[in-house]
Design goal:
Blueprint: E1 5-11, H1 15-27, E2 30-37, E3 49-51, H2 56-69, H3 72-82, H4 90-103, H5 114-136, E4 140-141, E5 147-151, H6 158-168, E6 174-178, E7 183-187, E8 192-196, H7 207-223, H8 231-237
Parallel strand pairs: 1-2, 1-3, 5-6
Antiparallel strand pairs: 4-5, 6-7, 7-8
């Protein structure tokens, strides 16, 4: 086994940047002692700092390698775990990938390994929030006939939601705005892009949208049976942090 330089590794906090760390491990003999995003890591006295720049060609080679030599599921697990934005997961992701390159698709059965458990746990967390948001997203029609949705997710799941709604609402222009991160997915009816959103954006909703909101309010009020309300059960099905952007929790009294 070739000698590897043991270093505290920094990267640009992109998933492609993380994949480049794996490339550096196998092709540049870099062994991360710690992985942190950009300059947020406080270097210890006995660790040498090393910044790994993102190279999309290298990242693509690693992505293809993971899918071919481990599995597509392993790649999806890594990507989903990364979306938690939890910097403590980076080393577990690294160890998971290295283990996967050694044992192949059997990596997900190695539940005795802490790194496998950590990646699975974080991937499930992201998957659950994404699944809930596909049902809890509320779109409103603007005066330009573009449907707009505000979200503020715990995890950075905008890309996963955009993938879902680009298939589900493929004949309609829409915007999903992650206000927590100041980014949005913009779909024109054929493809979507994700980018930063100015903080001073003003939206005008269509007259039809106001009528639909009034209709929904009437329906929700009529449907609700006061005597059968169970707020504890309701919180289990609709967590409180989703409700900020849900129309039915602002148009009615609970």
């Amino acid at each position: 086994m070739a000698y590897r330089r043991e270093l505290a590794v920094l990267f640009d906090n992109s998933f492609e940047g993380f994949l480049c760390i794996l490339f550096a491990y196998y092709y540049e003999d870099i062994l991360p002692l710690n992985i942190q995003a950009d300059q947020s890591y406080q270097l210890t006295l006995d660790a040498e700092e090393y910044y790994i720049a993102t190279d999309y060609d290298k990242a693509m080679r690693v992505e293809k390698g993971i899918k071919r030599k481990i599995s597509r599921q392993a790649f999806d697990n890594l990507y989903s775990a990364f979306l938690t934005e939890n910097e403590d997961i980076y080393m577990d992701m690294f160890r998971y990938a290295v283990l996967g390159f050694r044992v192949g698709e059997a990596v997900d059965s190695h539940l005795q390994e802490d790194c496998v458990l950590a990646v699975h746990k974080n991937a499930r967390y992201v998957g659950r929030e994404t699944h809930l948001l596909t049902g809890f997203c509320r779109f409103k029609e603007t005066d330009e006939h573009v449907f707009y949705c505000e979200i503020s997710p715990v995890n950075n799941v905008l890309h996963l939601l955009a993938e879902h709604f680009s298939e589900r609402m493929s004949n309609q222009a829409w915007v999903i705005h992650d206000k927590k991160r100041g980014i949005a997915a913009i779909f024109d009816g054929s493809k979507y892009i994700i980018g930063a959103v100015p903080t001073n954006v003003k939206l005008q909703y269509s007259d039809k949208e106001e009528a639909i909101q009034d209709l929904w309010k009437s329906f929700f009020d009529t449907l609700a049976i006061k005597e059968r309300r169970n707020k504890k059960l309701q919180r289990n099905f609709v967590p409180l942090y989703f409700r900020k952007w849900m129309l039915e929790f602002h148009l009615t009294k609970h």
